């Protein structure tokens, strides 16, 4: 009987413990909801809320019309507005240079979404890290983007572009090509050479496991972003239980093994003076060389895990965003043959038939440069940037957002804001002529973001874009494939075209 009494007492204690924990969790949840609702009330006092929001689902009920509506809201509200996901769930969408400037200069962090989706692959590289870790690594990586390091890369960009053009020539005049597919392989080819010193022939051979892994990870990441169920349960557990999740793990492990093997082998060469940067006949420093040589003020370098994260981040950001920028630039020039012909004449005058662009050639490609910039304005590779405020933020007009607010810098809507750009839907490269852009706010055009966390590789990307456009237009004429629907931008991690994709017809220049 004593035993039964002890068991009864024990169960009673367990019951009280469970009840207490449940009450505490409910109280905590209620506190979070209450604070969120209070924050939304403060936000609604200073910023307008566009019409059409459902009490439960907010503006998400607009579905396919959401992108069209958000562009109209940017026109109507000029500076910023509140986007509602549901009760107590909002973000501030910023669409004007004066507000954007304040956000980029504020004390804020990147929010969890969508960057958390990339963390299993990219770890704590510059894209995902924050605080002291980010500051240290950014400082250590900056020398890797000095113009003296970038100079030899122009020859590598030319080499990779010419491989793609050879493939195009074999297709025959008037062939229709999926531009993003071809360009993505080309930029990945360049990134492997510049980041890891690897010449993999990835444009002509699909047998490399690393190439397959990177392409698979990019595609699966995009798929995950488009599927709300892939965020279900803790840490997106539902996704990891699906076939896509299992494929992602396999591809991630394959990519990591490849990077780790190369890092280990390259680190071993540090024991041999003069060997760094000249393996296999290579006479330039690649990104991995820079990372291995980097030391902080205490003489400490990056660990192999940190280097792997930075290499993987550079591979992803460097090839996918540049591929987006180049694909849409070619599309814009195909749609505007007058501008395409001016670019072609400039390329022919500068290159004189050469198949390799040089560092000195880049500064002479002026019209090509402003056409690239106008394309990046209309189709920014990264259309939205997210920040979470660590303290209250007061804008130049006195309006204040509370601490904890989520702010989206809507780069796509900023670039189409008629209060900033005249006739924003018109392709007009002369906007970026020196005489027309000298009085424009530096926060009006942000294809590479701004502030401390701007894109560290923006000069790398622009050099590759100018090189590729010049070489392509010297050899090919581009026209739209009008048998297919007009390409529609799809704003995910990078700006792609919705299915069936972005197709252009290519014709060799005689």
Task: Please give a structural write-up.
This protein starts with a helix and ends with a strand. The longest helix has 45 residues, at 2-46. It is 53% helix and 10% strand. The chain has helices spanning 2-46, 66-77, 97-104, 115-122, 131-141, 147-150, 153-171, 179-196, 209-225, 237-241, 243-268, 287-293, 304-335, 337-351, 359-362, 366-378, 411-415, 434-437, 458-475; strands spanning 80-86, 89-94, 108-109, 175-178, 384-389, 393-394, 400-401, 406-410, 476-480, 489-491, 495-497, 503-508. The protein is α+β, with helices and mostly antiparallel strands and 510 residues long. A hairpin with a 3-residue loop joins strand 10 and strand 11.
